[in-house]
Amino acid sequence: MRAAVRMLLRQHRALAWAFWALLLCVAVLSLMPTAYLPAQVFNLWDKAQHALAFTALATLGLLAYPRQPWRVAIGLLAFGGAIELAQAATGWRYGEWSDWLADAVGLAAGSALAAHPRRLMDEPAQPAAQASTPR
After folding, report:
1. Could you write out the DSSP letters of every residue in 40-81?
2. Quick check: 103 and 80 in contact, CB under 8 A?
3. DSSP code of 124?
């Protein structure tokens, strides 16, 4: 039993570290001058990048902090808005509210992805004898 608890604690710590590291990477990449970034092929890709980044952030955040889903969601929405305001304040990036909307779409997708593993963890395990008997 103690080994299982230790394993769960290690997984929780790894998820939390991955979440915060990804949050830092998204912040740095979002505020980096465009000269250091690859050229955009079309504007839709920019929105997809926002949605994918926030899908990953939401999934990791909700798995790392399963008891605080509203804090994670509100925090990520505030983070996305802060990035857009910070981009508008720089001389080399542009803040767009449509990017924030793409962040919200990614947050919804990440919430859906994180809900399934959390549901599996919340369900009590059935004993093998009960699970195999037909009804």
Report:
1. PS-HHHHHHHHHHHHHHHHHHHHHHSTT-HHHHHHHHHHHHH
2. yes
3. P
Number of domains in the chain: 1
**Which amino acid is located at 133 in the chain?**
T
Tell me the C-alpha distance between 107 and 57, whole Å. 8
Query: Which has the closest alpha carbon to 102: 15, 20, 26, 16?
Result: 26
pTM of the model: 0.77
pLDDT tens for 55-102 read 999 999 999 998 999 999 999 999 999 999 999 999 888 888 899 999
Instruction: Write the pLDDT tens digit of every residue in 37-46.
Output: 766 655 667 7
Cα–Cα distances in angstroms (integers) from residue 17 to residues 12, 57, 95, in the given order: 9, 12, 28
Check: CB of residue 71 under 8 Å from CB of residue 44.
Answer: no
**Residue 53 belongs to what domain range?**
2-32+40-121
Rama region for 65: left / alpha / beta (φ>0; ψ in -120 to 50; rest): beta
Q: With respect to residue 62, please indicate whether it lies within any of the assigned structural domains.
A: yes
In 3-state terms, the chain is what percent helix, strand and coil (to 5)? 80, 0, 20
